[in-house]
Design brief:
Blueprint: E1 4-12, E2 18-28, E3 31-34, H1 41-48, E4 51-56, H2 61-67, E5 75-77, E6 84-86, E7 91-101, E8 108-118, H3 127-140, H4 147-164, H5 167-187
Antiparallel strand pairs: 1-2, 1-4, 2-3, 3-8, 4-7, 5-6, 7-8
């Protein structure tokens, strides 16, 4: 199984407009694979401007926010490639697309690391932060997974939230639960 790094990927269109999305980057030797679903703005942007910035953040609200429609996060210009990175990133990678493998559902963009920087120490995720990340992924799969699987996963993740969540994690969890509650209501 390849290593996957959950991060925030910023891409830019030809007009220079940035788009922020949570994605799992797939390790591929010295390169990283970005595999956005069709259709998506990330896919369109990578086809227009073949560069991406991965911002590694310890603020899980960014992940939860992006999957619940809250995509306005402070950014600044990248160092070496066209695009933006999160201002509050612990570190970031700037990448250039080297090759594209077409696919009907998820084309794969193999990206070469052009530049990387650390901005401050990272203390690691606590259990609540990890639970928010897992729940954010779950929210992106609501239409793909059986309702029983979703409910069982939530029961387990709620344990970590109740035991170790701080204000940021509670806010992020609240956004995700709003989305899940809307999904639940639509199931009836």
């Amino acid at each position: 199984m390849p290593r996957i790094v959950e991060t925030i990927v910023t891409t830019t269109n030809a007009k220079g407009e940035a788009h922020i999305a949570p994605l799992g980057l797939i390790a591929d030797g010295d390169n990283w694979i970005i595999a956005p679903f069709r259709p998506s703005r990330t896919l369109d942007n990578l086809n227009e401007v073949p560069f991406a910035i991965a911002s590694h953040t310890d603020d899980v609200r960014v992940f939860a926010g992006c999957v619940t429609g809250r995509k306005s996060w402070p950014t600044c210009t990248a160092e070496r490639v066209p695009g933006m990175r999160l201002i509050d990133a612990v570190s970031h990678w700037e990448m250039a697309v080297e090759r594209i493998t077409n696919d009907q559902q998820r084309p794969r963009f193999s990206c070469r690391l052009e530049y990387e920087a650390s901005h401050r120490p990272w203390e690691g995720f606590n259990r609540a932060q990890a639970a928010v990340l897992e729940c954010a992924v779950l929210v992106t799969r609501l239409s793909m997974l059986p309702p029983e699987k979703i409910e069982n996963e939530l029961k387990y993740l709620e344990i970590a939230i109740s035991k170790t969540a701080g204000p940021r994690e509670e806010e992020a969890w609240g956004w995700l639960m709003e989305k899940i509650d809307a999904w639940r209501a639509a199931q009836v």
